[in-house]
Amino acid sequence: MTDFQTAAYIAIKLILELDSNLVEIILLSLKVTFSSVFIATVLGLYVGTIVSITNFPGKNIIVVLLNSFMGLPPVVVGLVVYLMLSRVGPFGVFGLLYSPTAMIIAQSILITPIIAALTRQIVSDLWVKYELQFRSLCLSLKESFFEIIWDARHGLLTAIFAGLGRAIAEVGAVIIVGGNIEHVTRVMTTTIAMETSKGNLELAMALGMILLLLTFLINLSLFLIGNRSKNY
Amino acid sequence: MSEIFPLKFSKVNYQVNGKRLIKDVSFEILKNKRTAILGPNGSGKTTIMLLIHGLIKAKDGLISWNGRDHQAIKKRLAMIFDKPILLKRSVRENINFFVKRTKVQRKKRLFVCNQILKKFDLNLLANQPVQSLSAGEKQRLVIARTLTLNPKVLLLDEPSSNLDPENTLELERIIKNISKQGMKIIFSTNDILQAKRIAQHILFLSNGKLIESLDAKTFFQKPRFKKIEKLLRGVL
Hints:
The structure holds two protein chains of two kinds. By secondary structure, chain A is mainly α. Chain A has one domain (3-226): MetI-like fold (Orthogonal Bundle). Chain A is built from ten helices and no strands. By secondary structure, chain B is α/β, with parallel strands linked by helices. Chain B folds into two domains: 1-73 and 152-236, Rossmann fold; 86-151, no CATH class. Chain B is 34% helix and 25% strand. Chain B has helices at 45-53, 91-99, 109-119, 135-147, 165-180, 192-198, 216-221, 226-235, and strands at 7-16, 19-29, 35-38, 60-65, 77-80, 153-157, 184-189, 201-206, 209-215. The longest helix of chain B has 16 residues, at 165-180. Chains A and B meet through helix 5 of A and strand 5 of B.
């Protein structure tokens, strides 16, 4: 057997045996990812929708900033969050550095602009159609906000899944603020990077397979949502 | 409820990016007649409709409803736009969206919704997404849900622009019925025959100017301007 075959064999064995180390890493990954996606969804939907359905001075600048922040470099975000949370930083007093909370904060900062920018685009397209009708019915801002989010729900789910895809595959920021500490902040991506560099391909490969499976499931969900939204 | 008519436009001007779309327009609309705002494409019909509803504001001139401004009566107006604006939901949900804007109690909404569906022959389509409806069905739905608001004035901006002749006649029948029930109808059209079939009062616009404001009978029998006479001769 080649090294690759051996590694793949052991990786599959680890998955099938539900290796405790592997399960712990996966669960922490999911916890960090879903927490950050939840925070980014709340913020992103709010910001993206409000920017779409209101007019205010400087709106175009906000739109340009949102679009620009979609491509924030993860290591830069990681560095900034590190500086903020480090002992000498403004939030050092909370002692969050090298904790899953720090990883959630970093990922939320990375994903929020993605969800907000996509939300703005999706809601703006719909707002062009709905604006006159909503105004003619004297809908309040709050009513318009919830009604348009409901009608844009299929597109917005795509935006949320795009954020999820980015979060689950993120490595640069979480390794800086999380430190990849065993049993504390070790997630799938950071483990793959570390184990590969150490030459321990089995665990890296098992995690890689699961990561690919999750990515596949996210894309499958996107496809199904896209198909469903065609009916409306 | 206090009277909201006459609706008066006094020297109203409206411009966008320096282009004057409405030029010194003055007219009066009374309660009892179906009013058509007639004119060729680009004459300012839609702009007048939006000004009447208050969705856009005139910078010059005065628009008043029995001496009051738009704010006082805006909840008594409803508008149907030239392209049906339908929510990305089912037929029933579209109606329910409008019923929610009325004072109907939550537990009675379903009943009201079902009544409207039946009245407008939409009950078999109730759970269909609106995208699957034909143009005629869409327009019927738009009118049905708007009527749940029970407005005093219904504004229809080129209501038959997307309809075939059969659906156009059906729509005109509905408009006449609504009007008979006491609702004021103001509609815009570029179809002079449609204006002749439905309207009792005509406002004729050309290039943002009001050319004529007359009762329909006089307008069609004794046109005072060559432009209108030519138009009528070409069609009649």
